[in-house]
Design brief:
The complex is a heterodimer of chains A (193) and B (441).
Chain A (H helix, E strand, L loop, with lengths): L1 H11 L5 H9 L13 H9 L5 H6 L1 E4 L2 E9 L6 E9 L5 E7 L3 E12 L2 E6 L3 E3 L4 E4 L4 E8 L8 E8 L2 E10 L14
Helix pairs in contact in A: 1-2
Chain B lengths: L3 H9 L2 H24 L5 H10 L1 H36 L4 E4 L4 H8 L12 H8 L4 E13 L2 E6 L1 H8 L4 E2 L7 E4 L10 E2 L2 E2 L15 E6 L11 E4 H7 L28 E6 L2 H10 L6 E3 L1 H44 L1 H9 L4 H42 L9 H17 L1 H9 L2 H6 L1
Chain lengths: 193, 441
């Protein structure tokens, strides 16, 4: 959004808007997100209690050997990269490692963590993150994420894409819901119908 | 839509290369215009003479451009300086665990030492955090007391070392009545003081009468508000408040970890650091429970910066609009300045100088003033940022450094390109003047 504004401004003022143009690439890869709310999407979801939508519920949930992935989502973008967020629950007996992901929709997919480097927000590559038995791991804005690179198509709100999360114990494939470009959490799309 | 090969190429470039290319791209119109206008002529000695003829008027004009450019440059550089300074101040605080509440408030209290009354984290919780296999450092940060302008913080020796490395003077605290001071605390090694309960105007000065703490060491500068802090063993804070000392009675006198959960009175915040980068993220999820909140100060700060992003955009737009106004002013100024030379230019043309030569003289003259003003403006901007940064640093204890970055150079390059293109107008106007009339004037 900043990029669009700056591009428009840059056009309007001919060539005198370099500060803005720079800002745009300074914030590359991160929409200046406002507020992230760790558990709200889950609690909110449970409180809603729409049993009629069990199918849709299954749509947002995937499980393999005690590892559950819940509510995967990303933001609408036309920029070729996107961050995928999801909540991982380890209901098994052993520690598991989330090692990355892959998706047919993107050329690359890697696990990244948010850092503020020299005042600029960036996401750095992480080889893996462990989840202990009985614990949850939240991939959320300004924290952990799967970064998709080289997206084949722009992502529009309401779209879905398939992402395979890679654990040391196996792969978990699930739907990723595309939310608005400034979303801060999964919207439980199915429940609003 | 941008072609894929282009975006792949562009994002494959290092950021510095992207910035440099932007700079060249923004300056290109000026260079191309210059080459086209001056091509096959050598107007420079004449231009030098013109500038010298009315040197004070020209110097004033250059100065006006310099001040305006300096304001734009200063605005952008200052905003970035403050953003970087606040981020640098939080760098040592990887992960902070507190009682559930507002992340922003807890960050301000823990990182920037703006204490608030908060619930304490108990011994069992602290123990669980400290004994986690991925935790390399778990330091209590017990704020609430002060001495004059300085917060008195109870913590461990490991945290002092983590914060500022080796001490510049003296040694680490080794007893409950010893303290290490920040680089800018007006106490010397060997001095004694009595902490007050609370911080600022509300501090109760005599609440801890009878307590005397002795300064035994001084930390290296950290560039954050901890330079004004006094660090004591956390046992010291517990002792002056009449609480248990964190250790079993038989281990009385011990300073620092391990603490005994049963005798641990509590701490408002814990700094957690993992050796492995990934572990910080896992720990954050692990320590986000009903009783504790774990957050990355860097992420919270980034959210604040994000909220301020709108202000930042407004400032950028202001800087650009200012430059546009200046460009308009430059145009008006040039129109007036060139009238000063009307008679000489008319003479030149009467002598048979080609129109294009006269055009190149006028334009080169204008471009020289603009170029000189822009370069000087960068200096003015840097000086302004230097002064403001020093004031901000003195007032907030957050080290804000003045530096010029690519955005400023982009702004100046764009400004130069725009104004030298505008300067083509007075050059055209100079040609349309009547030679005879100007010669008679």
């Amino acid at each position: 959004m900043i990029r669009t504004t700056s591009a428009a401004l840059a056009l309007v003022v001919a060539l005198a808007a370099p500060g803005l143009a720079h800002d745009a690439h300074g914030q590359h890869g991160d929409q200046a997100g406002a507020h992230h709310e760790e558990d709200r999407d889950e609690t909110g979801h449970n409180e809603a209690g729409h049993h009629d939508h069990a199918e849709e519920e299954a749509h947002h949930l995937a499980e393999i050997e005690g590892v559950r992935a819940l509510h995967a989502w990303t933001r609408a973008t036309g920029e070729g990269t996107a961050l995928v967020f999801v909540t991982i629950e380890n209901k098994g007996e052993a520690e598991v490692k989330l090692e990355g992901a892959e998706s047919a929709a993107a050329k690359t997919a890697e696990l990244v963590g948010f850092q503020l480097k020299d005042g600029e927000p960036t996401y750095v590559y992480l080889p893996f993150v462990s989840v202990k038995p009985g614990r949850k791991l939240a991939l959320q804005p300004k924290g952990l994420a799967i970064r998709l690179g080289g997206l084949e198509q722009p992502l529009n709100k309401g779209d879905e894409l398939e992402v395979e999360f890679e654990f040391d114990t196996g792969h978990l494939e699930m739907h990723v819901q595309v939310e608005a470009a400034d979303a801060t959490q999964h919207s439980h799309a199915g429940h609003q119908h | 839509m941008v072609p894929e090969f282009w975006s792949e190429f562009w994002y494959g470039l290092p950021v510095v290369a992207q910035d440099a290319l932007w700079f060249v791209f923004l300056l290109l119109p000026a260079i191309l215009a210059g080459v086209a206008v001056v091509w096959s002529y050598r107007p420079f000695s004449l231009v030098r003479a013109m500038i010298w003829r009315y040197r004070w008027t020209n110097a004033l004009f250059v100065l006006l451009i310099a001040v305006s450019v300096g304001l734009g440059v200063g605005l952008i550089a200052q905003e970035r300086g403050i953003r970087k300074g606040t981020a640098r101040a939080a760098e040592k605080f990887d992960l902070v665990v507190t009682a559930p509440g507002s992340e922003v408030q807890m960050m301000l209290a823990t990182v920037y030492l703006q204490p608030v009354d908060v619930p304490l984290i108990d011994g069992a919780t602290y123990d669980a955090i400290a004994s986690n296999e991925n935790v390399a450092l778990a330091a209590p940060i017990a704020y609430g007391d002060s001495y004059r302008e300085s917060s008195v913080i109870g913590t461990t020796a490991a945290f002092v070392t983590h914060l500022s490395g080796d001490l510049t003077d003296g040694r680490m605290f080794q007893a409950v009545d010893e303290a290490v001071v920040g680089a800018r605390v007006p106490l010397d090694v060997g001095d004694s003081f009595t902490p007050s309960h609370g911080v600022g105007d509300g501090a109760e000065e005599h609440a801890h009468d009878g307590v005397s703490l002795r300064v035994v060491g001084r930390m290296a500068p950290t560039g954050n508000p901890w330079d004004k802090a006094i660090l004591v063993p956390v046992e010291s804070v517990w002792k002056v408040h009449g609480l248990p000392l964190g250790h079993r009675p038989e281990r009385d006198g011990q300073i620092g970890p391990p603490f005994d959960p049963d005798y641990f009175p509590g701490t408002p915040a814990i700094l957690v650091r993992a050796d492995q980068l990934w572990a910080n993220y896992a720990l954050r999820s692990e320590f986000t429970t009903e009783r504790t909140m774990a957050f990355f100060p860097g992420a919270v700060l980034s959210q604040l910066h994000g909220l301020l992003g709108d202000v930042r955009q407004v400032m950028s737009v202001m800087a650009v609009v200012t430059q546009l106004l200046v460009a308009a002013g430059v145009l008006a100024g040039l129109a007036v300045l060139i009238r000063l030379y009307a008679r000489r230019l008319a003479l030149l043309r009467a002598l048979g100088a080609p129109d294009r030569f006269v055009f190149s003289v006028v334009w080169t003259y204008a471009a020289t003033l603009i170029g000189a003003g822009a370069v000087l403006g960068i200096g003015v901007g840097l000086a302004a940022v230097g002064i403001i940064s020093r004031i901000v640093t003195a007032r907030t204890d957050i080290l804000v450094e003045a530096s010029l970055g690519w955005p400023e150079f982009h702004l100046v390059a764009g400004f130069v390109s725009l104004t030298v293109l505008i300067a083509l107008l007075p050059a055209f106007a100079a040609l349309s003047r009547d030679v005879i009339t100007d010669l008679r004037s």
